[in-house]
Amino acid sequence: MYKDIVTDVFFDLDHTLWDFEKNSALTFKKILKENNVDIVLSDFLEVYVPQNLIFWKLYREEKITKEELRYQRLKTVFNELKYSVSDDMIHLLSNEYIATLSSFNHLFPFAIEILEYLRPKYKLHIITNGFQDIQDKKLKTSHIYDFFDQIINSEMAGVKKPNPIIFELALKKAKVSPKNAIMIGDSLEADILGAKSFGLNALHFVANNEPEHEICPIINDLREIKHYL
């Protein structure tokens, strides 16, 4: 479908190649135990996962700061679970979470396989809303850093997806026009609508049973990329 026009493939990182939820769960399992926070991990994650998405959306929309994101997503969970914890402990857990998260390296199934399939045919890049030092460490720890020519992050761009400025910067660094580029990501708002609004092609990787749409092709398995590229 895109084989004749696409020369450059842009991937989102978290929730697309790097299995954020699995790595995040392993991180919390480690740091909650080490800090003697006596709370059932499954109960914690049941509240944390949707809250984290809510606070990331606020951060993406410039409604909260990075510091507020990191504090509030934990404070909200402990409040909802009625677990008494000091602000000092929340800040400690927040810092340890950031320091530990990128030490885990689980990727989505077939991530390496599809990158190896694409690399001889296309230039590969990353566009991520994550923080530069953490995202670089994730890429290196999971052994996929060297697959990518350009790695664009929101700190570098000064804005977050879906802001067109980050896509403009990515295309400029990759030296490619929008019509010859494709964005593959999990977020309909940030990745798909953001890319489409700037003229890029798109593939929506749906890992969590999001609603169907006709904005672009939807894939549920990274191997399905081979049908389009």
TrEMBL record:
Molecular function, one GO term: 5'-nucleotidase activity
Gene3D superfamilies, A to Z: HAD superfamily/HAD-like (3.40.50.1000), Putative phosphatase, domain 2 (1.10.150.240)
The protein's matches in InterPro entries, at most eight in alphabetical order, are given as: HAD-like_sf (IPR036412), HAD-SF_hydro_IA (IPR006439), HAD-SF_hydro_IA_YjjG/PynA (IPR011951), HAD_sf (IPR023214), PGP-like_dom2 (IPR023198), Pyrimidine_5'-ntase_YjjG (IPR052550)
Which Pfam family name is an example for this entry?
Hydrolase
What name does UniProt use for this protein? Noncanonical pyrimidine nucleotidase, YjjG family
UniProt organism field: Costertonia aggregata
